[in-house]
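Q: Could you fold this chain for me?
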Amino acid sequence: MDSIPKLLIWGGVVMIVVGLLWSVGGKFLNLGRLPGDIVVEKENVKFYFPIVTCIVISVVLSLGMMVIRWFTK
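A: Sure. Below is the predicted structure, expressed as structure tokens.
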């Protein structure tokens, strides 16, 4: 099999797994409402900046990419 079809298949599998985790894990994880996320509420304006959530997602994705590279050597 060529590399592009394999990449598309694995991309689809990853999207399905992420979708399932998102739908099930959203009830148990407070992702997006972690301590350290910035929320400013004024009269007509609500500013939301999920800085800690971004850091957590970045670390998890980086670790995942390291594992993928480790297995593909």
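A (continued): The chain has two domains: 1-30, 34-73.
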